[in-house]
Amino acid sequence: MPWPTYPMVLKTSTSHEEGADRHWAIATKEFIGDDKGNLKGLKLVDLTWSFGEDGRPGRFVEVAGSERTVPCELAFLAMGFLHPQFKGMLEDLSIETDERGNVKATEKAYQTSIPKVFAAGDMRRGQSLVVWAISEGRECARKVDEFLMGASQLESKDNSLMHLSM
Fold it and tell me: Which is it for the CA torsion 111, 113, 117, 118, positive or negative?
């Protein structure tokens, strides 16, 4: 099923088949660390959806008595946004943005409207998958290398070790 209907389908992947549990409507209240700054746990609370007056869109409400702590040594934060933050560097440098509010940068060179300033990933494309951000970061690094050195030996989508014949 094509986007945007895909999220409405409950899909079981190999990680679920191997024993991963699914939990929905949970909020992280606190990251718990030790005296050395290492993450040791997460304080969580269950949520329930509460409709507003007259059935209008509501909000999530914490379920009383559901707070608990789970052990955790590594947490990944996946946070979306609409566009980069303008206040600060982008405003100060007067960097051009596109019609969607993302930093305007050339497709092939990743350069912004300011010479010697490059942009890639979510800053240039808008929010997307992390694999796109990684790909764009690698491609942009190659373009910066070419800009500074005149050439680059870094891999690119068009020049990958995977394309070499054995």
Answer: negative
**pLDDT category, 130, cuts 50, 70, 90?**
confident
pLDDT in tens, 35-75: 999 999 999 999 998 887 776 777 889 999 999 999 999 99
Cβ(75)–Cβ(31) below 8 Å: yes
Q: Is 136 exposed, middle or buried (0-12, 13-18, 19+ CB in 10 A)?
A: buried
Backbone angles phi, psi at 86, to 5 degrees: -80, -40
**Residues ≥6 apart with Cβ < 8 Å to 137:** 120, 121
Indicate yes or no: pTM above 0.70.
no
